[in-house]
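User: Please predict the structure of the protein below. I'd like the answer in structure-token form so I can feed it into my own downstream comparison script.

Assistant: Understood. Taking the following sequence of 293 residues as input:
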Amino acid sequence: MKYYFVNYSLYCLAILLLMPIFPSYSIDLQPGEVRAPKTDINFAQFVYQHSQRGDRYVRGEQQMDDTGIRSQQFQMRLGRTFEIGKYPSAFYMQVLRGSIRLKGDLSHLKGDSGWGDVAFVQAIWPYVNHETQSYMGLAAYWVVPAGSYQADRVFNLGENRHRLALQAGYQTLLAKQLHGMVVADVTWFGENDEVGLAHNVLNQQALYAGQISLRYDFNARFAVGASYFYTIGGETELNGQDLNNQIRSHRYQLMGGIDIPLGRLSLRYGADLETENGYFEDQRWILSYTRFF
């Protein structure tokens, strides 16, 4: 029974680490975000996200248990745009506070509430063509294990490990007022040596993700968009034992955004289309406000 509990706990943890319970630490971009920013501008972004997950899948098969996960987060980004040489660049730091609530067959497990891990992001645009509205951007992400974490909890806001990710994106004008965007990224993971009461060691292989987005600008203030995401990889090992739990998911997201006198508002809604291992996300709402100064 003890062996089963440890492996089940790790299995749940490994799934949640990259199933984007907190997409601020996955690398989803809003349609149009590869566009190069104006330089020498400070910005602050505030985000509220609500997510609900239900059915659990193992190697593509839906399980018969009754599970439910509700999570919410409030995140804040503070940053500045500038130039590196002649290239537009941006840097920001992100912090978040959130909670995880468990239902059904998971209700006997501990949820979590508190601070999440801290992220630092550096982006640069090596190619900018405002005439054709074509841009290529590169970004590096470093996530520091500063969030809430307890070894005896299956579901934690923090991960007790470092993460490093690299991302490349390109967008261009496809037709009048219609923009297309493609993004690819890879994430590497440090070791978590405090998994379960026995302080097992968790290692995880690299995770790869791709995104395709369309954005339509009705006018200079209002735009809508749609995105498709594909994620693969991220198999985990417990004390060197392969858990055979590769992450492979398809999901979508819809967006509406509007400029207001004090900044920009956007609302996104999305869900899973298919998942190989993990808890199927039934819905995700994201409301964000960005202020430039």
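That's the full token string. Residues 1-25 have pLDDT under 50 and may be disordered.
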